Fold Sugar ABC transporter permease YjfF.
Amino acid sequence: MTTTTQTEAGRPTLGARYATFMSRHSSLMPTFAAIVILIVLLVGAQLAFGNFITPRNLSALLLNNAYLLILAVGLTFVILTGGIDLSVGSVMAFTGILCAKLLAEGLPAIVAIPLMLLGGAAIGLLIGVLVHYFDVQPFIASLAGLFLARGLAFVVSLSSIRVEDPAVLWLQRTRLTVGDWYLTPTGILALLIVAIGVFITQWTRFGRTIYAIGGNEQSARLMGLPVARTKILVYVISGVCGGLAGLVLTAYSGAGYPLNGVGTELDAIAAVVIGGTLLTGGSGYVIGSMIGVLVYGVIKTVIAFMGAEQSWTRIIIGGLLLVFIVVQRFIVTRSDRRR
């Protein structure tokens, strides 16, 4: 006599295999959902406009969202530990205007760029120290970093500073073309950051420690894992990514501006969550965050094709965010029951 989960030969049915796979890989569900949404958006846009899925549009998708992708990678590290970083948009503005100011004063790019990255790392270090050693909630600590970075941006300059350095402008103006496809150095940099993020989180001890802290920080500490160093370092990484995003945005716009990045931290957090990273930490993937950024970029492009107000982008992303938070809640509840 057979059971409902096995065939007469004793082998699991397709349904049983699917149930087993999903029970073991439930953390992949939100990322799979984001991939499905991305495909539906692309197909729907192609059917609606007829010329949406073209090499030019898809190449521009990476070009226009390279800075957001870099921010999302840094935020993924932080959110995987159960933290949050609200300062990334302001750090991007501060490092961008700092770079523009240093270049305008005659400093070579080879010196200005490391200094802007150090500025982002310093703010990330400050937030990490507040979170771990002073037990300040990540929301409050990163909010302080947000105000600090934005204030420093206005200290550097109250107005836009044009960038004329050929090395920085080369990052955006250079086109590596293959047929109708093209790629810029800023896009290559964003993809390189994604690749490094995937490698660190999936194949290094540091990455395993990040997941362990997000899963249960107390257990990670009892296992002898370097909790303090890891928690501080993820905020430093987020700060460095903010600096790199500042460089990319400065190259993209050709100028530094102290009001750049207002609200961008929320876009980056939304992309990370849509990509499947749990806000409670311990589950998520860098590649999922990239999918989340692409979903955001496609929605923004579709709104532009329709000629509608860009405020609809916020509305649609907000709706998707609510859906994914519900999915995340379901995953957490299911995991708790299995324990």
